[in-house]
């Protein structure tokens, strides 16, 4: 058995014996199989066809592992040395579970491709290092198998992930993104941008004091953000509606609400009243058109109808704030 400690540091690849190389290959195949199964579990609910692909890839890794164990049993006996990839300097790393949980389907596929490329490089280097003909042949065969994993994944994709299924998965991912982030974020941006127009511009024209106007705008924006965030998170846990994590929705709504109000409050840090007011009005113009664009891009609202609703409504609120402030 071989001990590795933080104080001793990692082993260099060149220092490994043939038995240790086999042990490292066995543990690596086991880890990769577990990673693929974890991906399958993560994808099963929203992308069942892709989940099946990763289940099949895990089966391939198990097959490789069994071949390596048989070779180790034949050459060195039953006792496999305890050596893992994190014991070897320069060995290709794997992300821990908690860093893989929130990956998108495309990120998962990219990560799997990188895993296969790293495994290929390892087997090629290991095959060059060993002088045992049987081990060298096995490692070379496994290198070719890993190199062909991209083609295997393609064949598995054709088998399990048809173009129709991939389109459905992509549409499902987009729909979930809209439900979890876009809808609450858009509601927050609209609330923060439009609802704070009247109090901020009323305060500006009533006081003529840019600093006081900024403080009023800051308090209104932050307060609205906190209120919207908690409201969004509390009224729907997402389990039945399918809208996703209430924390994510609450953060999206709260942050966008605060940003919507701060956009036209921050110009009042400028000490000159009319410079600050004109700048704030320009910011409002871009805010309202950005809302219209998002509605058109993600909510499929016709652009000009969205523009009329948001820009016209925002302009009326802005005018009301100016009139009240001058009253």
Automatic annotation (TrEMBL):
Transmembrane helix in keyword set: yes
Keyword Heme: no
InterPro entries xref list: Ccc1_fam, Ferritin-like, Ferritin-like_SF, Rr_diiron-bd_dom, UCP035918_rubreryth/DUF125
One Pfam family here: Rubrerythrin
Membrane topology recorded in Swiss-Prot or TrEMBL: Multi-pass membrane protein
Rubrerythrin diiron-binding domain location: 20-153
Keywords, comma-separated and alphabetical: Membrane, Transmembrane, Transmembrane helix
Protein name: Rubrerythrin family protein
Natural source organism: Rhizobium wuzhouense
């Amino acid at each position: 058995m071989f001990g590795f400690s933080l104080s001793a540091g990692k082993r260099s690849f060149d220092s490994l014996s043939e038995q240790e190389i086999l042990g490292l290959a066995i543990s690596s195949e086991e880890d990769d199989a577990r990673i693929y199964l974890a991906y399958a579990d993560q994808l099963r609910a929203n992308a069942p066809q892709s989940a099946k692909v990763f289940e099949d890839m895990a089966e391939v890794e198990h097959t490789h592992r069994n071949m390596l164990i048989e070779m180790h049993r034949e050459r060195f006996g039953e006792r496999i040395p305890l050596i893992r990839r994190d014991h070897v300097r320069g060995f290709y790393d794997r992300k821990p579970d908690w860093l893989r949980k929130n990956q998108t389907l495309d990120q998962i596929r990219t990560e799997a491709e990188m895993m296969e490329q790293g495994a290929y490089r390892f087997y090629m280097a290991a095959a060059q290092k060993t002088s045992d003909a049987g081990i060298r042949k096995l490692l070379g065969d496994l290198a070719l198998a890993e190199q062909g994993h991209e083609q295997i994944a393609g064949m598995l994709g054709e088998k399990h992930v048809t173009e129709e299924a991939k389109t459905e998965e992509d549409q499902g991912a987009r729909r979930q993104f809209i439900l979890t982030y876009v809808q609450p974020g858009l509601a927050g941006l609209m609330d923060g941008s439009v609802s704070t127009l009247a109090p901020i511009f009323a305060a500006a024209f009533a006081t003529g004091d840019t600093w006081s106007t900024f403080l009023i705008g800051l308090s209104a924006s932050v307060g609205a953000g906190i209120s919207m965030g908690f409201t969004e998170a509390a009224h729907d846990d997402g389990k039945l509606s399918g809208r996703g994590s209430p924390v994510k929705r609450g953060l999206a709504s709260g942050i966008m609400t605060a940003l919507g109000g701060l956009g036209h409050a921050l110009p009042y840090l400028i000490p000159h009243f009319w410079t600050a007011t004109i700048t704030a009005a320009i910011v409002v113009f871009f805010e309202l058109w950005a809302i219209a664009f998002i509605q058109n891009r993600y909510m499929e609202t016709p652009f000009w109808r969205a523009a009329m609703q948001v820009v016209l409504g925002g302009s009326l609120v802005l005018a009301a704030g100016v009139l009240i402030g001058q009253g």
